[in-house]
Design a protein that fits this description.
Largest sheet: 6 strands, mixed
Distance between the termini: 45 Å
Strand order of the largest sheet: 1-2-3-4-6-9
Shape: globular
Order of helices and strands: EEHEHHEEHEEHHEHEHHHH
Number of strands: 9
Number of helices: 11
Strand content: 5-15%
Radius of gyration: 18 Å
Structural class: alpha/beta
Length: about 280
């Protein structure tokens, strides 16, 4: 197995820790990092010696989702070869690049939800777009005071992915979920707690120790019973529809990413200005 460049996996006393370590790119995903994220999530989800899993980001950033610079530049031709070798042209749109990144990330999210053990998101700093979706897909979320949460997709003309449109109405109810998506507020950690998106807020300096303590406590719980309880709660909340919803999120985002509004949104993002979207 090839070494992972931007994903670290550690195991200690029944706790697995998955760290996204691509801080210079705000812990975002290119294809290689997305592949490794799926591989690491799968390993930890299926390792019977791991009884609880922490997902964290390196350097005061949780995750910002897909790497928009990588998307803008057309990805890597070698990494995109599985689609239709030689067929990808960056000037034809950005959907194919998103497709490969998100297929791996969506597969990891599916593993997280099916795993017969708890996954905890330890959020320190921003959790935006796909990073927000990954945090919401975990069973529990603990955040530092300096953390913030933002849906963010609409800023670049996108439709949502990484499970965000699946979990928001289940966590917030439809009316509040619509407010979060349509108005796109940037929530502080305390506001996210008040909205019901996360479970706990701790001082910045305590995030690693508090998350580790939570994971240790869960690793000492009766694993089989916890796994069954998680499965029953998943069933009660309609989690069997997650995979088909992830497919729909991917299809819609790929379609919209090939349009002119995303091109404008992407340009505006890098020019640090407000996008000027047109009616589709």
């Amino acid at each position: 197995m090839k070494p992972m460049k931007h994903i670290r996996v550690e195991r200690e006393a029944g706790v697995g820790v998955l760290t996204i370590a691509r801080r210079e790119f705000h812990n975002s995903f290119d294809v290689e990092t997305a592949q490794d994220f799926r591989s690491a999530a799968m390993q930890l989800a299926r390792d019977r010696d791991v009884r609880a899993v922490l997902i964290r980001g390196e350097g005061g950033v949780f995750c910002s989702g897909a790497d928009l610079k990588y998307v803008r530049d057309g990805g890597d031709a070698g990494e995109l070869g599985y689609l239709q070798p030689g067929s990808h042209r960056p000037d034809e749109g950005h959907g194919e690049v998103f497709k490969q990144i998100l297929e791996y990330v969506h597969s990891a999210i599916s593993e997280i939800r099916r795993a017969p053990k708890p996954f905890i998101a330890a959020v320190d700093g921003p959790a935006a777009a796909g990073g927000f979706g990954i945090a919401m897909s975990c069973d529990l979320v603990i955040a530092s005071e300096r953390s913030w949460f933002e849906w963010a997709f609409a800023k670049t003309g996108l439709t949502g992915a990484e499970s965000s449109t699946f979990f928001l109405p289940r966590l917030l109810g439809l009316r509040k979920a619509l407010e979060f998506v349509l108005m796109n507020p940037r929530l502080s950690a305390q506001e996210a707690l008040e909205w019901g998106l996360i479970n706990r807020v701790v001082p910045d300096a305590s995030i690693d120790s508090a998350a580790a303590a939570m994971a240790r406590q869960l690793s000492e719980a009766p694993t089989a019973a916890v796994g069954i309880a998680k499965s029953l709660l998943n069933r009660a909340s309609g989690m069997e529809r997650l995979d088909s919803h992830l497919d729909a999120e991917l299809d819609e985002l790929v379609r919209i990413a090939d349009g002119s509004n995303f091109s404008e949104g992407l340009k505006a993002f890098f020019e640090k200005r407000r996008a000027r979207f047109e009616s589709d």
